[in-house]
Amino acid sequence: MASGIKTVPIPHRGVDYRGKVVLAPMVRSGELPSRLLALQYGADLVWGPETVDRAMIGTTRRFNEKTKTLEWFRMCSNNVKDPVDGKESIIYRLHPEKEAGKLIFQIGTSDPERAVQAARLVAADVSGIDVNAGCPKPFSTSGGMGAALLRTPDKLCAILEALVKEIVPEFEIGISVKIRILETAAETEVLVRKLCATGITGLTVHCRTTPMRPRERAIRGQLRMIADVCHEYGVACLMNGDVESKEQGLKLAEEFGADGAMIATAAEINPSCFRTAEEGGLLPWREVVEQYIKICMDTHNRFANTKYLLAQMVSGKEPVRKPLVSTKCYKDVCKLLGLDHLMDRAAQADIDSGTEQHLMNMAAKRKPQTDNSPQSKQNKKMKTTISEKAQQDTRPTSPMPEKAQQPCAQLAS
Ligand SMILES: Cc1cc2nc3c(=O)[nH]c(=O)nc-3n(C[C@H](O)[C@H](O)[C@H](O)COP(=O)(O)O)c2cc1C
């Protein structure tokens, strides 16, 4: 790692990215339990999943006494005339004690004013605000966010400048940006110079171009130049792309003159990659999975999210992988994995996380109707006719499948 170089001042409540190996922002895979586990295994800092400014604006902040977490939530209603029927949707969660001084909030935005408005809602509870300028998926880029910002550098700089002007003095935290490399080193250099001049304290470079897929190897040819430009301005530079462990990250950063490294996929599969060899290195998946399940239950994590992550952590070669995907609640998972000592906690977690209620609602929906009144018969007849029609109509009922509506959610595929 470079030493004896210029550094921009780090605001009082902010963090310096230098010398750190950090957990990458990951939609779905970077929810609270994954971040807490990464910290437990030695991640120096953790990024939250990209949260779009519009989703954040209008949320209410509250402290959850049971889980000791801060939650930003809103009421969602299918029936706007009757908000009582509305369900609560938690947009962002953090653990103020366990993530203190370690959490960076990543924002998805294409507008300086909205970015400031959204950042203001969480700035007092996090250690930095990062702007996503690297997501290549159409649902992000079509809104002018993510990697689209690499093609509109003036807009990206205006967003960073607005955050530096409005958020830094009031909340005393730093602003950073996460980018991808451009096609040529010359183009990337022009961009990085502009970004560094905005007053940011850190820049992460994902060493892939926007069209590159995750399975293509990262390109490190531009990295030294990017780190050198960052250092000219005193900005910390984190490298990202195919880093597999804390030790490898520190070694690569040293080799290419960067200040630290960021890990995504390797940490998604096994977050103990943050343990050094001295600490025992990578742990077997069963041990990691047990820790993960405990944290999920303690934090009342949504079961669907827990199961998604478990499916990343357990290899397809393991015989339990297939039945794991069919589990419906924490009790099922603990039983399947032989975690009998956690069964009582699992039963409670199923109640606390709303999993049990959800299963009951689903069962009630499946239950056949017993009402035989003439009105009910008439309703059933109408429903059948509508459903027959719907079957003939092959157009999708939703403009996008649920998974695709999540920014960056499919980057792993
Ligand atoms: C499941 C998943 C979700 C991701 N979500 C985000 C995100 O919200 N914001 C972002 O900037 N990058 C996101 N990324 C990209 C990663 O942060 C990282 O840049 C990329 O995976 C390269 O790092 P790796 O080679 O260590 O996987 C995501 C990646 C994955 C695998």
Automatic annotation (TrEMBL):
Query: GO molecular function, one example?
Result: flavin adenine dinucleotide binding
Tell me the cofactors it needs: FMN
Q: Which GO terms describe its cellular component?
A: cytoplasm
What this protein catalyses is:
a 5,6-dihydrouridine in mRNA + NADP(+) = a uridine in mRNA + NADPH + H(+); a 5,6-dihydrouridine in mRNA + NAD(+) = a uridine in mRNA + NADH + H(+)
Question: Polar residues bias: where?
Answer: 384-397
Print the keywords alphabetically.
Flavoprotein, FMN, mRNA processing, Oxidoreductase, tRNA processing
Instruction: Using the UniProt annotation, give all residue ranges assigned to the region (Disordered).
Output: 363-413
Record-level GO BP terms: mRNA processing
Please list the residue ranges annotated as the DUS-like FMN-binding domain.
25-294
Domain of life where this protein originates: Eukaryota
> Pfam families, from UniProt?
Dus
* Keyword Transcription regulation listed: no
Q: What biological function has been recorded for the protein in this entry?
A: Catalyzes the synthesis of dihydrouridine, a modified base found in the D-loop of most tRNAs. Specifically modifies U47 in cytoplasmic tRNAs. Catalyzes the synthesis of dihydrouridine in some mRNAs, thereby affecting their translation.
Protein name, entry field: DUS-like FMN-binding domain-containing protein
Instruction: Tell me which species this is from.
Output: Stachybotrys elegans
